Amino acid sequence: AMALCLKQVFNKDKTFRPRKKFEPGTQRFELYKKAQASLKSGLDLKAVVQLPPGESINDWIAVHVVDFFNRINLIYGTMSEYCTERSCPIMSGGLKYEYRWQDDSKYKKPTKLSAPQYMCMLMDWIEMLINNEDIFPTRIGVPFPKQFQQVCTKILTRLFRVFVHVYIHHFDSIINMGAEAHVNTCYKHFYYFIREFSLIDHRELEPLVRMSQGWGG
């Protein structure tokens, strides 16, 4: 599975994973369109992330988790050729932070992985969760599970680590590709969203704290 996984990472068509789509006609699709429209209108990102009146918070969080997964996937996909077993033998954010992988199946204990392996495991794990109807129900009237926000916190905390790794280890590649403004906007949007709903423990944000100091919030 690992070899197949790595082949997917390094194929040149830039999408790291198939994107998860919102089904047209569903409430989520409408919410997604609403969120995208306000994003494109150039509104202040702090305003963009606020829960629209009358909408359910879990639906709003679900839409954003899936959208951030798609977008961060794409960002990592564009840099994946620079993130190799050789360049990044450890999944880290500089010398101070090292992230180990743990899941409920293959890796029961936190395990050292290279950055590309970690990314691969992470994207597969998130994809499995967001496609699981018991966790991310898509049918109208099916309630979210009690632990929904906890699951989202775990997903978003791990997605944040992708930003940490990409910013600290691959920033020169981002600049060379002319992707700096795009990555920064995505990170800012993500940051305001998790702050608005207190979805990530502030200690996890430490590696990029200098970047966001000037933004308030």
From TrEMBL:
Q: Which residues bind Zn(2+)?
A: 83, 88, 165, 170
The protein's organism comes out as Urocolius indicus
Q: Gene3D superfamilies per the record?
A: MOB kinase activator
Keywords for the protein's UniProt record, in alphabetical order: Kinase, Metal-binding, Transferase, Zinc
InterPro entries listed in its UniProt record: MOB_kinase_act_fam (IPR005301), MOB_kinase_act_sf (IPR036703)
State what protein this is by name. Answer: MOB3C kinase
Q: Which Pfam families match?
A: Mob1_phocein
Q: What are the protein's GO molecular function terms?
A: kinase activity
